[in-house]
């Protein structure tokens, strides 16, 4: 399994995304597992000034043999740590005064159907359905209502 932690630097342009961590885990048997994934924060010099303040997304993805099967998205709000700076932002972003608030209790989970048994393809079985059949759920396994603000997580 390959786990990736990605910071979305711009909702409009994937070239500003930053891979914060990539870890290979396995082999693993079927079951439930817990692990801690630690990563350095995103490099603000690789984010456009207009995208540093505001809402973005942190993505945790997992792939099996190159096939992404789950994506967990967390909304992230970046704002100044001082009320006066929030009300009257400086012309140039003061990165050292920006704080990040990750909405960790409200993840958006998208599951993609994949082929977990690629050896079966040698026997003429059909490949898995495409990503347009992905199912998005919230932390309770329910399909969430669309978010009224912030970028989409289908990055």
As for the number of domains, it is 1
Count the DSSP helices.
2
Number of strands: 7
Overall geometric form: elongated
Mean pLDDT comes to: 84
CA-atom Rg in angstroms? 18 Å
Q: End-to-end distance, in Å?
A: 20 Å
Biggest sheet overview = 7 strands, antiparallel
Q: Which ranges are low-confidence, i.e. pLDDT below 50, for 5 or more consecutive residues?
A: 145-155
Task: Explain the overall architecture.
- This is Histone chaperone asf1b.
- It is found in: Nucleus.
- One of its GO terms (cellular component) is nucleus.
- The chain has 155 residues and is mostly beta strands.
- It has one domain (2-138): Sandwich (Immunoglobulin-like), CATH 2.60.40.
- 6% of the residues lie in helices and 33% in strands.
- Strands 1, 2, 3, 4, 5, 6 and 7 form a seven-stranded antiparallel beta sheet that branches.
- Mean pLDDT is 84; it is low at 145-155.
């Amino acid at each position: 399994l390959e786990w990736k932690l990605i910071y979305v630097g711009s909702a409009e342009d994937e070239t500003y995304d930053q891979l914060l961590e990539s870890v290979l885990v396995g082999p693993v048997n079927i079951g439930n597992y817990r692990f801690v994934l630690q990563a350095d924060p995103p490099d603000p010099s690789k984010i456009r000034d207009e995208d540093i303040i505001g809402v973005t997304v942190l993505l945790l993805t997992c792939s099996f043999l190159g096939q992404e099967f789950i994506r967990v998205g967390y909304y992230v709000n970046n704002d100044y740590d001082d009320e006066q700076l929030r009300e009257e932002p400086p012309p140039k972003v003061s990165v050292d005064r920006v704080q990040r608030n990750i909405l960790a209790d409200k993840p958006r989970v998208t599951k993609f159907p994949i082929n977990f048994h690629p050896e079966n393809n040698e026997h003429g079985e059909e490949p898995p359905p495409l990503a347009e059949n992905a199912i998005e759920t919230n932390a309770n396994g329910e399909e969430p209502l669309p978010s009224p603000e912030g970028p989409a997580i289908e990055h």
